[in-house]
Amino acid sequence: MSSIAFLHPDLGIGGAERLIVDLALALKDCGHSVIIFTSHHNRDHCFEETNNGQIPVITAGDWIPRSTFGSFMAFWAYIRMIYLTIYLILNYRFDLIICDQVPSGVPILKAFKHKCLFYCHFPDQLLSKHDSFLKKIYRFPIDFFEEWAIGYSDMILVNSYFTDEVFHRTFKSLSNISTKVLYPSVNFNKSIPEKIPSTLNTKLKNMDAVFLSINRYEKKKNIELAIEALKALYDKFNYVEEKDRSLIHLIIAGGYDLQNIENLEYAEELNQLAKRLRIKPHVTFMKNLTNEQKQFLFQRCTAVIYTPENEHFGIVPLEAMYMSRPVIAANSGGPRETIINNETGFLCQPNSPESFAEAMHRFIENKTLSNQMGAKGHDHVIEKFNHQKFKNELNKIVTNLILINQHE
User: Is the pTM of this model over 0.85?
Assistant: First the structure.
């Protein structure tokens, strides 16, 4: 049995955190000892596996600021990760350390001869807007450091072929370094309850169509597109009477951290957008879903709307299809590798409310389409994104890395 540590910046309930938890659970199932090290772990805002003892979590450095008056978040994230890495080195020794998102600790790990695997969700520099001269100056050393630090990894995994292509296009000095694609998966061992009580049940049971958007309340997730698509649906297909509109509902749900200013501001922006478009009665906002609430919404919805453009992978479409729900997503990035267009969902023109509205209308027009596509989606996920395959491949990668380290 090998000992493996994960270094992750803030352990919340986003897609990256879901993947880290799934990686840890998979390796634990394979007999490895695992611990997650993080700068922040809010037990009221995390995945249950990190709260119930399944995956041990050690927190260090939460006293370090996240930002300076809402700015310099990337800088402080790098500082927090450096502190977390030093804390780990001074107090523990592991056979392998897996890092993701913030690579600032990787060179330090290698200086102390730790074996390190870096899982790249997406280049951080592409997730930040370089929209002013001062921002470009601020980001230049951070972007340079990101590329330099990742280069010290013993192995680099990426979450999709799309990310693999972007990785080599972005990090030109790493063009000769080989990467390996390891798709995330959905854990098929989780139970799917047939009926879950919900306060929404009464409100939704008589609806003709319920569309569900699940994403963290972050601007890069482009959630406003779902609201604008609902408005375009009403206008384009002549749902002018309130009695017709009331049969179609949109649920916006996702991770929401009170300590994250962007979450607070963006949630309010979305609320105001729904009011401004005069469709607020037909939009329900939910935050920090429990597993039971999430599964209920997947079961009850007609289709899932996935709005990010050029999303590096996207675990939500996999979860939706596994729950036999079709997905409406942008025809870009990771969803092109997970969704079969016109079979398990619809790939629409990115950032086009009208294109998304047309896909939504097809489910309203054909009442059997949702179940037909959902069944195909379920089979597709089990066949291509099998959790056992994911676990076996991960275990093989990790075991080989550790054996190489032991023979050096």
Answer: no
